[in-house]
Amino acid sequence: MVKNYVRENVPLSRFGVLVAQLESIVASASQQSPDPLLCFDLLSDLITAIDEEPQDSILLWQRKCEDALYSLLVLGARQPVRHLASVAMANIISKGDSISIYSRVSSLQGFLSDGKRSEPQKVAGAAQCLGELYRYFGRRITSGLLETTIIATKLMKFYEEFVRQEALLMLQKALEGSGGNATSSAYNEAFRLITRFAIGDKSFVVRIAAAHCLKAFASIGGPGLGAGELDNSAAHCVKALEDPVSSVRDAFAEALGSLLALGMNPEAQVQSGGKGSFPSAKKLEGCLQRHLSLPFSRANGPRSKDVRMGITLSWVSFLQAIRLRYLRPDTELQNYALQVMEMLNTDAFDAHAQVLLLARISFLFAIIILHMLLICLTISCNLVPFL
Fold first, then answer.
1. Residues 6 or more apart from 14 whose CB is under 8 A from it?
2. What is the Cα–Cα distance from 35 to 376, expressed in whole angstroms?
3. Torsion over CA: 26, 28, 29, 33 (sign)
4. Is residue 274 left, alpha or beta, with left meaning phi > 0 and alpha meaning psi from -120 to 50?
5. How many other CB atoms are there within 10 angstroms of residue 114's CB atom?
6. Element (H or E) spanning 124, and its range?
7. What DSSP state is assigned to residue 220?
């Protein structure tokens, strides 16, 4: 009673006024659907107010704000509105009392587990919010990754492509947020979902999201993936380079480069995390030959040019990861340059693809060399502290 009395007698701040307006919109939703433009403007102001408001004021209104945002999401808000509502939810928990992350994630998971196929907008809103919370607090809620993955598998059965896309975007953020700290069963289930269902989806936006999930696996060290799984995922990416949609090919090309870079760096592969055993780290011997050189030289048919363009992008993605993420010495790049030149030593493909590959690889090497020269120059001028 005292807490309510104090709240009622505290002058409303700008943040408090916005929360009250949001509560009013949600409360009247049964009589009148919330106006999307009004909600968009209100949520934009709310996000700004959260950033500017002192923490004491945030704590005073946090629970009401969270409840109103949750209600707006499960009412079936459209994509721009549910995006802002999800960002606002993550921001207020981050700046306020973050202990509420556990109850909020649990309520979202419960709603999604019971979600009906006749309510795709509501399900998509809850999925987007859950993904955003994983992006901010993934390391704190790794215990829920398996349940989240199971939910994503369920959402992949929806007819609406935007629901399937949101399911994979949620999974991508959950993987990136949790790193390699969840149970091995969670990662195994996620990998099964991606490779068995997502990469062959009839919607190109879902296939792109699947490629991003594979790249997310590579970025966190491939937890739960042994040498066989890494090799199989690379093979899936090579096959996807024949996709008729260029954006899909580009997404899988980048994923392929990241996966191969991880395979060439076993010390970066996650070998332990939460409960359950992970496969031992092992270098993928001959993976560049299998998944880059041979597909490039053997490509034929109407999609051969697309495949070679994709392989080119994969080489660039691979070299970027090798140099910038895994910090391999520049001397190793010489060996990869020889492999590229050997791959080009054939007349089986058109000159345009050859020139494009040489241009892209040469540009990347030039950037790396310039970077090293800048470091050397900086050291010689004794300017390191100012970098």
1. 49, 52, 53
2. 58
3. negative
4. beta
5. 8
6. helix 120-137
7. T
Rg value, the chain, Cα: 24
CA 286 and chain centroid, separation: 28
Residue with tokens 């001959």: 286
Per-residue pLDDT tens over the stretch 174-206: 999 998 899 999 999 999 999 999 999 999 999
Indicate the length of the chain as a whole number.
387
Rounded-to-integer distance, Cα 387 and Cα 384, Å: 6
Q: Exposed (0-12), middle (13-18) or buried (19+): which is 232, by Cβ within 10 Å?
A: middle
DSSP state of 275: S
Using alpha carbons, list the distances in angstroms from residue 160 to 111, 117, 165, 202: 18, 9, 9, 11
Region of poorest pLDDT, from 215-224, 298-307, 366-375: 366-375
Distance CA 364, CA 114 (A): 49
35 Rama class: left (phi>0) / alpha (psi -120 to 50) / beta: beta
The residue whose two tokens read 């030039």 is 366
CB 279 within 8 A of CB 301: no
∠ CA 161-164-168, rounded to 5°: 135
Examine the pLDDT at 63 and tell me if it is beyond 50: yes
**Cβ–Cβ under 8 Å, residues 333 and 319:** yes
Instruction: Residue 186: count other Cβ atoms within 10 Å of its Cβ.
Output: 27
Q: Using the 8-state DSSP alphabet, how is residue 200 labeled? A: T
Residue 372: alpha-carbon gap to chain centroid? 30
pLDDT for the residue numbered 3: 42
